[in-house]
Specification:
Shape: globular
Largest sheet: 4 strands, antiparallel
Structural class: alpha+beta
Strand content: 15-25%
Order of helices and strands: EEEEEEEEHEHHEHHHHHHH
Strand order of the largest sheet: 1-8-3-6
Mean pLDDT: 87
Number of strands: 10
Low-confidence stretches: 1-10, 288-300
Number of domains: 2
Radius of gyration: 20 Å
Length: 300
């Protein structure tokens, strides 16, 4: 199962560019495929195990662990067939920077945005972790409130965590990761061409790599085959069309790169647990049911 390549859609809103995802109650194993975005991300594991991979480094997130994903860094998460409960907080650094030309901007925020400095992915220092966890819990609580006061309190918590990370020397210089840049280019190419037939031979030729190397790259770094990844991108786009348009299932299948509608329905049903039409109808009912609730207490 895949949950939610370069994420081009903004997280949060213009008025409140902070997004909280609470992931729990999965009845099966799941994987969020490798992706990246320009915002900073904090992963807070309340109940593990959660398998986390950040910039090629693999970690096992146990109960009460935390990870930092710096802007522009490839990362992915997965969990075995056991209960897991974790949060991700995603926000642009501009949300907590002061937009002034000073030492803090020069030494911390600008290098983070420019990908020349980054935080160590795992919060391994027990003293630091012990101070961060209560603030993460407060962050969840404050983000569940409403109004301008919520934004102030959320910013305060994020700045407290940034202060602790810097104080505990978690910020370090980054070296250019040539393999990481290649991986991003490959994922962007798939994202731009998923509606066409993308095979191992074509992809390898485009990037001047051998098919054996490309196949091993997907297996070792993306933890899935090329076909599985292309299907993931296609199904994600199909889900978007089901949620945002009135196009027929046949039209959506074609626009998503599937020439066989029956095959599309089987793939979608396998990934989402229900047919495209049931997913659309269920999404409409859930939206109507939660409209008032979400308008009062929307965390993303």
């Amino acid at each position: 199962m895949y949950a939610e390549l370069k994420e081009n859609h903004p997280h949060g809103t213009r008025e409140y560019p902070f997004c909280e995802y609470h992931m729990r109650y999965f009845p099966h194993a799941f994987q969020i495929p490798v992706h990246w975005h320009d915002e900073m991300e904090i992963i807070y594991v309340r109940k593990g195990p959660l398998m986390v991979e950040i910039d090629g480094q693999k970690f096992k997130g146990e109960d009460g662990s935390a990870f930092i994903v710096s802007p522009g860094v490839l990362h992915m998460m997965s969990a075995p067939d056991t209960p897991v409960d974790y949060f991700t907080f995603i926000f642009p650094l501009e949300f907590i920077s002061f937009q002034t030309k000073d030492a803090l901007e020069d030494e911390v925020f600008f290098p983070l945005r420019n990908h020349t400095r980054g935080f160590r992915p795992e919060v391994a220092d027990r003293n630091l972790l012990g101070q961060l966890i209560p603030i993460l819990d407060e962050l969840v609580e404050e983000n569940g409130k409403n109004g301008t006061h919520r934004q102030i309190q959320v910013r305060i918590r994020l700045l407290q965590m940034m202060d602790m990370l810097v104080e505990y020397s978690q910020l370090e210089e980054l070296t250019r990761n040539a393999s990481g840049e290649l991986e991003k280019e490959i994922l962007l190419y798939i994202q731009d061409n998923y509606h066409d037939n993308i095979g191992l031979a074509e992809l390898s030729e485009h990037f001047h790599l051998s098919e054996k190397y490309m196949s091993r790259l997907f297996s070792e770094r993306f933890h899935m085959t090329l076909t599985q990844y292309v299907n993931y991108v296609r199904l994600r786009y199909a889900r978007h069309l089901l949620e945002s348009t009135d196009l027929s299932v046949t039209e959506i299948a074609m626009k998503s790169g599937y020439q066989n509608v029956s095959y599309f329905i089987r793939r979608f049903s396998s990934a989402m647990g229900e047919s495209p039409l049931r997913y659309r109808n269920g999404k409409t009912r859930r939206d109507k049911k939660n409209k008032i609730k979400n308008s009062k207490n929307d965390v993303c």
